[in-house]
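Q: what does this look like with manganese (II) ion bound?
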Amino acid sequence: MNSTSFSRRSFLQTALFGTAGLAFGGLLLPKSVSAESAPAFNLPPLPYAENALEPYISAKTLSFHYGKHHQAYVTNLNKLLQGSPLLEKSLEDVVIASSKSPEQSAVFNNAAQAWNHTFYWYSLHPKGGGKPSGKLANLIDSSFGSFDNFKQEFAKVALGQFGSGWAWLVKQGDSLKILKTSNADTPITQGIQPLLVLDVWEHAYYLDYQNKRADYLTACIEHLLNWEFAAANLEKAS
Ligand code: MN
């Protein structure tokens, strides 16, 4: 890739994602648009600086988590899909299509991890934490009894995920629920709209918290959860 096509891609990514911010649509990963190259999924920009979540998540963690892990899922997905008509689809469509066939498990794992990580970056915010308001706050109260109960339940489910996976706040029917998924699994394959996610793979917290997943979860829930992103996702689900 030459520097011209790279900067064009970067510009387009910023145009599509930077300003999209909270709206974030269907989490489309913008495709490469340069005429001379085959279509490919790109790693979307991190929506904040790598040190922006400190002291709760270090720049070192984000540089590996985003720059190595997330990048690898995107790179592997592009390798797996070389010549495939799936490269013409949105990432969300690739996740859903590949989830239905066991022989596509490698495509699914990389596509879903690419999607889940982008959703995770947006689920956190340097000025996050605190309490939601309005309709979302009311729905949390009616679904969990209180915001404090929600926080306890979210931490408990995330802590209870055995091994690698994700903990999700989702809209299901008329209420909110907390789900956990293993490895790359994601609620979007069930047609369930997530509002927020926390990554509970060890790579998300081990450099900062070692084996203390509970401390990582508390830091995220108290200080980083992006309630504006959750509210925007709730609007999408309504
Ligand atoms: Mn991860």
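The first strand starts at residue 165 and ends at 172. The longest helix spans residues 59-80.
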